Amino acid sequence: MQRLEGRTAIVTGGGQGIGEAIALAMAEEGASVVVAELREDTVNAVQRKIEEGGGTALALATDVSREDSVDAMVRACLDRFGKVDILVNNAGIYPTNTVANMPEDEWERVIGTNLFGTFLCSRAVVPQMLEQRSGRIVSITSGRGLQGADNGAHYAASKGGIIGFTKSLALELAPSGIAVNCICPGVSDTAQPRGHRTEEELYANAARIPLGRIGQPRDMAKAAVFLASDRAKFVTGQTVVVNGGAIMQ
Fold first, then answer.
1. Active-site residues: which are they?
2. Alpha helices of 84-188 — where are they, by DSSP H?
């Protein structure tokens, strides 16, 4: 039996990288998937992949930093599928800059997408989950939220904030049977780290990782499926670090 059969999942930032891998993995496990992403072309491509694999998906161009866009996403999900069982907060951006040179609008854009977007999406699905008295919220944080980020204070602050938000929301929703957790990837084989590292630098990280390689999107997707499934019924308020041992807690 598929682990997510009969469930509906929203995956933000689902048009590429880790988000795409999570959307595909949840569809493989039987979930109907809302693929939400700022770029319409990428979400449509992921929807086609899911449908070609025999799954069910709905592609929605969504800006998680805007309340009206998030609310429209959740309404569309409910109109199509009638419920929201799983939310994966994956949408995020990572420009690089020093604090000394960082304009306010850059700080606000990163916090607005990564942290405020996680809040907006979570808030939007909570009423439905409370009515169902069930649900899973999984947010993607980062090792930078644990260790800081050189030339990325805004990103580190947003990702550290997601960890604190996850624990707080887990406490709030636990009496209603809703579990809230986050996944903390290390360096992963996606487009995001390539925005500020060379290919050589990216793979040089493998030598410093105990398990001997950088992460693959599928590694995070497997953790997300676990946290969304009944196998993680008794897991809430946790940060699951998936990084090959690069950071050990």
1. 155
2. 104-111, 117-132, 144-147, 153-173
